[in-house]
Amino acid sequence: MGEFGIGQPVRRFEDKRLLSGNGHFQSDNNLLGQAYAYVLRSPHAHARIRTLDLTTAKAVPGVVLMMTSDDLVEAKLGVMGVPLQRKRPDGSPMFARAFLGLSQGRVRYVGEPVAFVVAETLAQAKDAAELIAIDYEALPSVTDTAEAAEARLRYGTSAPTTSPTYSRPAIKPQPMRRSPKRRTSSRGAM
Question: What's the pTM value of the predicted model, to 2 decimals?
Fold first, then answer.
């Protein structure tokens, strides 16, 4: 087995620091005038968004900003591209769909981002997100890989992947703006 083989132990250097309480995390940093963001996510595996009303939520004290996919389009923030171009075994480029950061008209998995809320405190952002009125029309979902493969075999390459009544508005991909590299992470230790 080689140096980087599967099952090889990985030498960890951060354990002592973390176990002794000396880890530094992004949430330990507090800046003057700092705001907090919360992402409202879909509770459905597949659903059409009939209505999305932010009126009550925007009235919550401390709310600085609320965004939906319509706001992203209006602000011309563009779509998120795929920074890493993967290749197929034959060397040809693999297809990767660019997408908006927030769902547009339909959710396709549990936890898909629907709205983005920014407020003076995290509690205010969460409270505002809870007041966003969303009317979902639940649609059938496939949760079994064998069932999904069966549909692909039954329909061939024309297997339905989206509703014929729904189409995404055309959005011109924008180049991603990169900020200087930082050594902080919201999930890991520094």
Answer: 0.64
